[in-house]
Task: inverse folding
């Protein structure tokens, strides 16, 4: 589906990509990880045909530079930084649906599934939405049309746990039909979404490996956390995950989306000294 | 059968080409509309509209329609003054707002997102240009139409030929600087550089107006023909001279240079030149900008 052969990209005298070789097959869900400056965004922009480059980039047998329309109409893209567009939410949906020649209602539906009330926000300028609302709308636009490939740059970074859970479910629905390239600084953010990890470091692929992806992307984990004593900082952190405490404030219960388990455990690790018991059961 | 397959292929090709052209035009209109929407919500557009509306209101308040110069009074006098003021502010407004928004959009990631959608680069570039042209030309022409409406209400004779010609001249000047602005935007990688380049471009053209640097050059012994050639090549000067020519057919205000212009062009010839030359410059620079943009990094 995607083939990069000796892909090199320089900005003036600075070489950012040093001969990337990458093959992505249909059904691959790739975590593209690496620190700042590793070349993730540059690689994505080369795949989207936005950058000139040396070497070869081919998507579905076509160059994204010379066959923009044919290539890009099958790609859904969610950027890391939402563009500061002044058009309203309704106009943005109509505009992108018009450009992509698809049904705007399908985009609105996905955004609403993620928790964005499109009818209420319709007249609000996109730029005035919160970070999470922007992300929900951009995901709605990307997932609300027929695509073969989803390219997403930190797509779940600004989503609340509920929206993340819906997002994982939406991706789960598309596992068989769509390939995914998900860029992130941290593997734990996206590990559960992917079946392959590609790590970039200073413009080179330093790791290309498969990931155990037995996690049910649409599944939920029923959790119970017991503390040694009430902890206000923990209460604040776990409230973000929509957990509830008993009257004593030491026993907390709630649910975590299957793919979010690593991220949740990461959060718990900060309070390791206060924990007396952890229980996580697939429900 | 091979005999019959060729015409069918040809017809398919034609249908495909027609469909592609239709898609491109549809996208161009969508992108132009999107750019118009974005501009109408931007602060610069509000300021821009206030400036041109304010100039016109200011001219009314100052009682310019009642004053007389070289036999000119009423609406003609007001329009000539409006044109002279527009010549000073329209180019710099066009340049600064165009380069700020285009390069600013690139820096802010708007290009990254929009150009990841299945849009043709040509449809995007020319759609943006068309949308921007309509947005920047509207307040200028609206202010002029306000004057015409005011004149009609007051029962003043409306010089329709002048109004139409002035509208054409303004459109030509706006297009010219829009094209230059797009070229600068394409060449610049940051808003600061683009703004500085836009300002320097405007300053150079301003300095080469007959009043300033050309006067000094002639004083230093520059051949008159060279000075006039420089003037003719300067779209701001050609606009200024053409505006002057409408109320001063002998170009008395211009001095000896008038002979060269009138002998070589004639009145009508010069008016045609002043209208078409900036359009050619605008189209040429915009096309060059597109050519460069298409071959470079988009975001």
Result:
């Amino acid at each position: 589906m995607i083939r990069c052969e000796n892909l090199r990209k320089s900005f003036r005298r600075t070489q950012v990509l040093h001969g990337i070789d990458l093959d992505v097959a249909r059904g691959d869900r790739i975590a593209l990880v690496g620190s700042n400056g590793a070349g993730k965004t540059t690689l994505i922009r080369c795949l989207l045909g936005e950058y000139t480059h040396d070497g070869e980039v081919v998507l579905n047998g076509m160059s994204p530079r010379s066959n923009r329309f044919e290539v890009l109409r099958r790609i859904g893209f969610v950027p890391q930084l939402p563009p500061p567009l002044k058009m309203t939410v309704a106009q943005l949906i109509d505009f992108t649906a018009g450009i992509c020649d698809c049904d705007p209602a399908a985009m609105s539906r996905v955004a609403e599934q993620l928790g964005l009330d499109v009818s209420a926000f319709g007249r609000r300028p996109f730029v005035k939405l919160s970070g999470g609302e922007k992300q929900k709308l951009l995901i709605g636009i990307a997932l609300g049309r027929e695509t073969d490939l989803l390219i997403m740059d930190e797509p779940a970074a600004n989503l609340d746990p509920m929206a993340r859970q819906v997002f994982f479910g939406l991706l789960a629905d598309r596992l068989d039909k769509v390939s995914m390239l998900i860029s992130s600084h941290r593997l734990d953010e996206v590990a559960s979404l992917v079946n392959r990890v590609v790590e970039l470091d200073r413009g080179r692929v330093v790791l290309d490996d498969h990931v155990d992806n037995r996690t049910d992307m649409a599944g939920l984990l029923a959790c119970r956390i017991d503390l040694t004593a009430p902890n206000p900082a923990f209460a604040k952190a776990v409230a973000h995950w929509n957990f509830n405490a008993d009257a004593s404030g030491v026993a907390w219960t709630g649910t975590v989306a299957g793919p979010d388990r690593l991220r949740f455990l990461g959060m718990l690790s900060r309070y390791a000294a206060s924990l007396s018991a952890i229980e996580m059961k697939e429900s | 059968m091979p005999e019959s397959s060729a015409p069918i292929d040809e017809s398919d090709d034609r249908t495909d080409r027609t469909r592609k052209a239709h898609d491109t035009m549809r996208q161009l209109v969508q992108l132009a509309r999107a750019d118009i929407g974005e501009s109408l919500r931007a602060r610069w557009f509000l300021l821009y509209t206030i400036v041109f509306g304010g100039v016109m209101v200011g001219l009314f308040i100052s009682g310019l329609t009642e004053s007389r110069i070289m036999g000119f009074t009423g609406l003609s006098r007001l329009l000539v003054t409006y044109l002279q003021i527009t010549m000073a502010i329209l180019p710099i407004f066009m340049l600064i707002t165009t380069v700020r928004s285009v390069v600013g959009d690139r820096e802010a990631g708007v290009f990254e997102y929009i150009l990841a959608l299945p849009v043709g680069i040509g449809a995007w570039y020319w759609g943006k240009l068309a949308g921007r042209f309509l947005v920047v030309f509207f307040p200028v022409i609206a202010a002029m139409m306000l004057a015409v409406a005011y004149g009609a209400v007051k029962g003043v004779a409306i010089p329709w030929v002048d109004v139409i010609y002035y509208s054409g001249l303004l459109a030509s000047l706006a297009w010219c600087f829009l094209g230059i602005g797009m070229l600068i935007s394409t060449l610049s990688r940051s808003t600061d550089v683009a703004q500085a380049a836009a300002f320097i471009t405007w300053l150079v053209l301003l300095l080469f107006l007959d009043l300033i640097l050309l006067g000094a050059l002639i004083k230093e012994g520059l051949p008159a023909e060279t000075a006039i050639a420089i003037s003719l090549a300067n779209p701001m000067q050609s606009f200024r001279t053409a505006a002057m020519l409408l109320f001063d057919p002998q170009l008395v205000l211009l001095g000896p240079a008038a002979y060269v212009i009138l002998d070589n062009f004639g009145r009508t010839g010069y008016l045609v030149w002043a209208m078409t030359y900036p359009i050619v410059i605008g189209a040429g620079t915009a096309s060059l900008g597109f050519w460069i943009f298409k071959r470079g990094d988009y975001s």
Notes: Chain B touches chain A at residues 23, 26-27, 30-31, 34, 37-38, 41-42, 105, 108-121, 295-299 (CB under 8 Å). Residues 18-295 of chain B form one domain.
